[in-house]
Amino acid sequence: MRYSIHEVYGKILDLSENGSLYWTRFIWNACVVPKHAFITWLANLNRLKTRDRLHHMGITNSSDCLICDTATEDTFHLFFSCCYSRKCTIEVKLWLDWHSSSENLQGLLRWLARGKGLSRFRKRIFASSLATTTYHLWRVQNLALWEEKFQSVDCTVRHIKRDIKTRGYNFVKNSVSELDKIWFGDLVV
Questions:
Q1: What total number of domains does the chain contain?
Q2: CA nearest to 40, candidates 56, 23, 57, 55
Q3: Where are the alpha helices (H) located in 72-177, listed in sequence order?
Q4: Which of 19, 36, 151, 179 is placed for a possible disulfide with 14 were both Cys, Cβ 3.0 to 4.6 Å?
Q5: Is residue 181 part of a domain?
């Protein structure tokens, strides 16, 4: 049997769609703001300090979601089971004309991995929108927890749209099809 470094790294990382880290290529792409990618990466690995985790550490008295106050705030709830986060996600998906029935972080990443018929540019914008939405939901949760400030869904969606458009303009170049340029140009913030 012959030793191959390529095969070893392939088995360690297992970046195929069936592997556990297939989603990293969508999150860690140039169209995604690095701090958005980092928070999304932590969320997908269930490593964010949600209220549930803070409660287990003895930092907070309750594990209830500060945004909706209807469930335990864990990663699955915050991204995208909470009624607040679900409304934000629906608004962003409608804005982008993103036709996916998935409503949670892992499901949306799987949908992107399959993404049949999507151009590379749209996949990048959808990945950027997913990471941006995740980041802003985490920001809303932190504002509620640490500063006792509550932000409206409309305000959060406006911030998400602005960030997506700002970052996306850097990638609308000659390599992007005219159809994609028109689609992206028609997205109103």
A1: 1
A2: 23
A3: 75-76, 83-96, 105-114, 120-142, 153-169
A4: 19
A5: yes
